[in-house]
Design a protein that fits this description.
Blueprint: E1 21-23, E2 30-32, E3 36-41, E4 47-50, E5 60-63, H1 66-74, H2 77-82, H3 92-113, E6 117-119, H4 121-129, E7 133-138, H5 144-161, E8 172-174, H6 179-186, E9 193-197, H7 200-217, E10 228-229
């Protein structure tokens, strides 16, 4: 059962056993917290995103969608929700996206440190051919030719991949980060292609990429074929 207290802040809709549901302050829809972003007010009175949901103070929840965050700023929803005058910068939607990108690059860097990432065309090709890859990463600004060649190898392997218990929705293909962002995460230059190897750090990176895609696509997630594209 959902108990409705203050619908805009942290003690709003939740399950009886854990705070797994919240109400979006803009759409008024009750959604899982993984589909929302928590915002808090800094000591200086500025609205800031709390992606890890750990910052002190009461939080206001907004759907993880750039369009919805922009709407919250436009409608002055943060001051209404916090019931006092706060500053929500016009750049808040872009600032939130930048933090989501940073969250992805940080997770990819951790996966690399854990030995769960290989990069470079030949190494990625080998990981695909030998069935070692758990996900494929392309730079969003990468050349089409290399992407096409690796995707062709992936299509050849897809029959076995589609039956994987680890990836019931198909093999993940990620293209949300630019080459410069991949360079930053992996500590090398001109990274266009990478492959994730199985492991918890790789799963964390994929989870954060899904949130970034949802934010950019305003909840209009798309998939192609049997692969999981994001």
């Amino acid at each position: 059962m959902l108990a409705l207290a203050d619908p805009d802040l942290d003690n709003g809709p939740r399950t009886d056993r854990s705070a797994t549901m919240r109400m979006c302050a803009v759409s008024r829809e009750v959604r899982p917290i993984d589909e929302l972003i928590r915002f808090v007010v800094s000591p200086a009175g500025d609205v800031i995103p709390d992606l890890k949901r750990k910052l002190p103070g009461r939080g206001l929840w907004v759907s993880a969608s750039r369009r919805t965050v922009a709407e919250a700023v436009r409608r002055n929803q943060f001051s209404r929700g916090f019931k006092r005058q706060v500053r929500a910068a016009a750049t808040l939607p872009a600032d939130t996206e930048a933090l989501l990108v940073r969250s992805c690059t940080d997770a990819l860097a951790m996966a690399a440190k854990a030995g769960q990432v290989v990069s470079g065309f030949s190494k990625v090709e080998g990981a695909l051919q030998h069935g070692q890859a758990a996900a494929l990463v392309h730079a969003s600004d990468g050349a089409a030719d290399g992407i096409r060649k690796l995707d062709a190898i992936l299509r050849q392997k897809r029959g076995n991949i589609a039956e994987s218990q680890e990836f019931p929705q198909g093999f993940p293909v990620v293209n949300v980060l630019t080459s410069a962002e991949l360079d930053l995460a992996l500590g090398r230059s001109n990274v266009i292609h990478a492959a994730l190897l199985a492991g918890p750090a790789s799963k964390t990176f994929l989870s954060r990429c899904q949130i970034l895609v949802r934010y950019r696509m305003a909840d209009d997630d798309k998939t192609e074929g049997s692969g999981q594209k994001f």
